[in-house]
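Fold sample X.
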Amino acid sequence: CIPNIKNAWMMPSIDLDAVLVGIRVATYGEELTLTTKIPGAGIEKDYTVDLRQLLNKLLSNKFDSESMINGLGVTIRPLTYKEFTESSLKTFEEQRIFNLVNDDTVPDSEKMSKFNESFSKLTALTIDMLCKSVVSIRVEDKNVTNRGHIDEFIKNSDKTFYTGVKEHLETQRSQFELEPMT
């Protein structure tokens, strides 16, 4: 649908909604009719959404890749669509294990073991995603871009640095999310 996107897996994940809305506009027009049931009444109601407004909101945002955290300059990037999808699948698989906690047929010791294992994997996955998003760290006049050094630094950093990077990433990502419609 978009010839300039040679490998959709490598596009920034934050661009996905804009691409899909753009394809929908190009294919079916600028309006989308949604049918919903009114809670408690059982009445169906049609609503028309102007997709141009959604697209304008998504396209007007700018990703701010630079941040100062604990006196260090941090350059970030959004996850690629492939990285985002892989982490979502892994997270889903690990969250299924959390369902064991409510299963009365599984012994408590096994529940606790599986829960701890799953929690450790989810924590490692979260740190890995954050590491992938950091492109460089500037210390005084030196710019560190070595992937191994960045990963090691983040995994051994204090909570304030980790939280600062995470919050900056979440703020940037949230700008590109479609808001729920009322």
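Fold sample Y, listed below.
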Amino acid sequence: MSSPKVSVVICTYNQVSYIRDTVESVLAQTYQNIEIIVADDASTDGARDVLRELEESNPDRLIVIYGDTNLGIPSNINRGLSRVSGQYVAWLDGDDLMLPQKIQLQVELLENSPEACGCYHDATVFDSASGREYGSFAQLYNGTKRLRQGSIHDTLVPRYFALPSTTMCRAEFVPKHGFDVRLSEFSEFLFFTDVFVNGKVLTLDQELTRYRRHDANLTANDDFRRRSLENELVAYAIITARY
């Protein structure tokens, strides 16, 4: 099998306690042809010192974009997307972790499935402080471990959640506008809809990412949840008008 380059985009802001482990989980992948692009959204907590150290140790594999101003998640992800040069693109939040075979298994699946524009898998949810595992993301957030796959009509289901950190897609299908900066939350839902209209979406029935739960999770914030619901409705309106 060929070894196409995979660009892993990590979006981070003030995650000094986690960013080293996150980056090192990508460096530890069994698949080697990877470029890691970290977009830092003007962190002020010392995360940049960690990133500079990692950058110096891995100059051939790690690209860090240091934002001068805090722009928010969609614009910061677009900072990272602007530097992508791989045939495939994967994502990782600045506090999540990849298991060692994640990239290899996703590349193998997509290389053997030319009709697919992308794929995703499940994740293990764990408590950051204690290390306790709560279970699979799909079971906890969707009520079933069954992952939806097929066409966009099979996967575009209201209140069905999948982590961006579990997703890989072909770079050719990444929209030139990137993430829609009009949506401060839920922009990933619209983005992956723009990607997955181009072909089949496949799944791997494995938990290949570890999703960290801690007090600073956006999803634990009541105000974020209210804004997210409003942004979700706007995203559906855009999708309806666009497609």
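Sample Y note: The two ends are 36 Å apart (CA to CA).
Also: Residues 222-242 form the longest helix (21 residues).
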